[in-house]
Amino acid sequence: MGDDAATIEDYYHEGRTFAPSAEFVASAVVNDPAIYEQAEADFEGFWADQARSLVSWEEPFHTTLEWDLPYAKWFVGGKLNVSYNCLDRHVEAGLGDRVAYYFEGEPGDTQTITYSELLSEVSRFANALKRLGVNSGDRVCIYMPMIPRTVIAMLACARIGAVHSVIFGGFSPDSIADRINDAAAVVVITADGGYRRGVPLMLKPNVDEALKSTNTVRSVVVADRCGGNVDMQSGRDHWWDELVSAESDDCPPVFVDSEHLLFLLYTSGTTASPKGIMHTTGGYLTQVAWTYRAVFDLRAESDVYWCAADVGWVTGHSYIVYGPLCNGATSVIYEGTPDTPREQDRSGDPGTWAKDRLWSIIERYGVTQLYTAPTAIRTFMKWGETWPDAHDLSSLRLLGTVGEPINPEAWMWYHEHIGAQRCPIVDTWWQTETGGQMLTPLPGITVTKPGSVCAALPGIGVELVDDDGNVVTEGGGYLTLTTPWPGMLRGIWGDPQRYEDTYWSRYEGRYFAGDGAKIDSDGYLWILGRTDDVMNVSGHRISTSEVESALVDHEAVVEAAVVGAIDETTGQAIVGYVILRGDVESSDALRGEIRAHVSKKLGAIARPRVVIVVPDLPKTRSGKIMRRLLRDVVEGRELGDTTTLADEDVVDEIRDRAESDDSDDE
Ligand code: WTA
Fold it and tell me: How far is ligand 1, taken at its centre, from the CA of residue 308, in Å?
């Protein structure tokens, strides 16, 4: 139990450990623990070795790192092209017939794309972009569904040195306009729409709306995905297929400096205005290439890897596009939602959605590694194991998670019901800003604990510090990074001051990640969530994620979100929102029991003052729970900005429940 001076107290102690099997270790890509010490002795040398062995350089770099805090330059003097690394060199090595992507559309259409086909398509499209006047360094926005042409568009930009800015397909016209204006983009690449839950979700009309309040865009390229029934403005708008039909499939890659800007990605802030995170070429590619290979234990000749994220987020950039392609891997891309299509015959009720699309895809393609988010795993838990149980998942040999803390119960469910207790789980902590994975097990080395990200990767420096910046060696603190890393952000587009203030001013000489974390007596790291998710109850700082884990540990609870609501006596009072298992009815007695369960797991200090049963939780479109909205509801405030909310109705339902459950509880 933490003492009063602790920065963030930790109440949860996990005893279970899972070592990789001897068989897995024997054939793992990385299985010698000495790698940690070697990298620690010389992290620059470690990354220089990876850059030389995994990336092809047109001109070799002469200096590994120039570090002028907080500005880093990696692999200085080197010249390379990312699309050359992802495509040409594999084709030159005789791997042109290897499948780069198995694509499955939501309606069930499929497409298999080899490396040589991808190279031709990328070259053709890159030539089309040149014809539209796109030059090296120009910014191009990509607002697309999850289809192969999205990847082609990104690689085509990289081929000619243009900078892509992918805008997630769920964003509104205002968000598109903000991003276009901030980056002064000259071209937008979009599609008429994409399929989502059985219907076309239109995208092009949002671009038209956005372009009314921008003035830098000269051309719009539109991929036909849903039948092409959209307005086209003559002179400005071009159909993708018509544009590329006349282009040659030969487009020499433009070799750029290692520090050339590769892409901007705006972070999906739940609060202030989005930041255009800048990623450059050589360092980023090196880190995603190495982490992809080592963390997912890649066997490129036989694996079929699947990252079920959207390419609109950094996970899609690094671990659907650049990491896998740089390594010559074979991946799956799926367009839609995990509970599509509607189930026709199994229950006889055409109104229900089938909930086994993911498991069916894994079975049909023989997927070997699955990378997904805790929020998805908890949803699958809620749906029940009968869905995965109906499929042969024996091809899987490794599982990954990313995006938020995974509570031990969800980790165990993933381990038992998806991984058949056989697959190592890599819980990977990283951020849009870090470019690639930073804290995670290495599957052939690490003995994992459910819910722990375990340790920093070789070559990454991490330390926890308290409020005053003193290093914490056991217990809770703030997560900081102590050494530059190749994939680190190089700044915020157009706002160097904000870059310095946000990440580098809180603790001198350290990158401040904005997350709370703890280190246990074995030295394992546990992410406790964003620091604004840390509550202060009677002077005790308690992490929302620990209380959430304890709530979900109760057998009736499948998902939970915890917020600290202002309380006159205690500073903040803990409020737990819970979703119950399908067959369980809410009652006063049950809510009391759930609160008592938290006391039992974590101590009375962590017992929620109130537990509110809700049908759903407000989430951003990337699946992060919007605790700010939950706080607004419980404190009876008008709601702030809800533009990043995935489903607006959820909040009304929660408000109704909050009123009824609050009044009869305590
Ligand atoms: C959270 C996603 C716990 C964290 C790649 C971080 C995690 C933020 C994990 C970045 C994890 C990401 N365990 N929390 N394994 N991975 N996070 O920029 O709060 O969308 O700061 O990048 O997600 O989110 P972003």
Answer: 16
Report residue 171 CA to chain centroid gap: 16
pLDDT on residue 640: 58
Q: What's the gap in Å between 207 CA and the centre of ligand 1?
A: 29
**Which residue CA neighbors atom 6 of ligand 1 most closely?**
431
CA distance 34 to 219: 53
Domain-wise residue ranges, the chain: 554-664
Contact between residue 618 and residue 645 where contact means Cβ atoms under 8 Å apart: yes
Query: Ligand 1 centre from 591 Cα, in Å?
Result: 30
How far is the C-alpha of 88 from the C-alpha of 250, rounded, in Å?
11
In this predicted model, which residue has the larger pLDDT, 652 or 595? Answer: 595
CATH superfamily of domain region 554-664:
ANL, C-terminal domain (3.30.300.30)
Q: Give me the helices (H) in 192-296, please.
A: 204-211, 240-245, 282-295
Q: Is 35 strand, coil or helix?
A: helix
CA 437 / ligand 1 centre spacing (Å): 10
Which pLDDT score, from 0 to 100, does residue 494 have?
Answer: 95
Range 335-346 burial, b when 16+ CB lie within 10 A, else e: bbbbbbbebeee
Q: In terms of C-beta density within 10 A (0-12 exposed, 13-18 middle, 19 or more buried), how is residue 272 classed?
A: exposed
Task: Name the residue at shortest CA distance from atom 15 of ligand 1.
Answer: 429
**Which amino acids bring their CB within 6 angstroms of ligand 1?**
267, 313-315, 402-405, 427-432, 453, 513-515, 527, 530, 622
CA dihedral 182, 186, 190, 192 (to 10 degrees): 110
**Residue 524 pLDDT grade (very low, low, confident, very high; cuts 50, 70, 90):** very high
Q: Which of 91-95, 423-427, 615-619 has the lowest mean pLDDT?
A: 615-619
pLDDT at 197: 87
Please tell me the predicted confidence (pLDDT) of residue 573. 87
Peptide bond into 173 cis (omega under 30): no
What is the model's pTM? 0.88
pLDDT digits (tens, 9 = 90+) for 547-596: 898 999 999 999 999 988 887 777 788 999 999 998 899 999 999 999 99
Mutate to test the pocket of ligand 1, among 279, 404, 411 (most ligand atoms within 8 A of CB): 404
Amino acid at 156: A
- Pick the residue whose CA is nearest to atom 5 on ligand 1: 431
Q: Extract the runs of DSSP E, i.e. beta strands, from 461-510.
A: 462-465, 471-472, 475-481
DSSP-H helix ranges across 161-281:
173-183, 204-211, 240-245
Contacts of 663 (CB under 8 A, 6+ apart): none
Q: Which atom of ligand 1 is nearest to the CA of 315?
A: 5
Buried b or exposed e, range 228-239, using 16+ CB within 10 angstroms: eebeeeeeebbe
